[in-house]
Write a structure and sequence with these properties.
about 180 residues; two-stranded antiparallel sheet; dDENN_dom; DENN_Domain_GEFs; Myotubularin-related protein 13
């Protein structure tokens, strides 16, 4: 699943390479509006007559893409890194399938790490209450908490978390890299 997603991620990174250079920020309104200059994007790539790409750029999905990814200051992700820094690598791998497969597997691993930052944590299902459990009259009192044991458990948890690997990615906002200019 992750490898298929990685292939599509590479495809869209190649398809939309240089899209940031065609974004225009219009400040006429109270809140700035981001506009995508389709003719400039198609012209830079020499694809003005390409029906497929024209239809993709005219679609609602691409409009949502521009509104979500248009702001110059937001949390960056794997797609932004691919568009900005890996375009040359992707082009170089076009004639070399083993390198392409290796890159797809690396991307799939990154996707997996982003979705599962702590894979060792197991979730347990809470059992459903038995029939008639609400009718029971023997309710046990809540036990007293042993402060020493609580402190021991906290120290154990801190010791374990210090040895754990860091989270895959934070959502810190940064300036989105523009990437290389669009070529033919």
């Amino acid at each position: 699943d992750k490898e298929v997603r990685a292939i599509f991620l590479r495809l869209f990174a190649q398809l939309f390479q240089g899209y940031r250079s065609c974004l225009q920020l219009i400040r006429i309104h109270a809140e700035p509006v981001i506009h995508f200059h389709k003719a400039a994007f198609l012209g830079q790539r020499g694809l003005i007559e390409n029906d497929f790409l024209t239809k993709v750029l005219n679609g609602m999905a691409f409009a949502g893409f521009v509104s979500e990814r248009g702001p110059p200051f937001r949390a960056c992700d794997l797609f932004d890194e691919l568009v900005a820094f890996e375009v040359e690598r992707i082009k170089a791998e076009e004639g070399n399938p083993p390198k392409m497969i290796k890159h797809v597997r690396e991307l799939a691993e990154q996707l997996f790490k982003n979705e599962n930052p702590n894979p060792h944590i197991a979730f347990q299902k809470v059992p459903r209450p038995t029939e008639g459990s609400h009718l029971r009259v023997h309710i046990l009192p809540f036990p007293w908490i042993n402060e020493c044991r609580v402190q021991e458990l906290l120290q154990e948890g801190l010791a374990r978390s210090q040895g754990a690997p860091p989270a895959a990615r934070g959502d810190k906002k940064c300036v989105v890299p523009a990437g290389p200019p669009v070529g033919m």
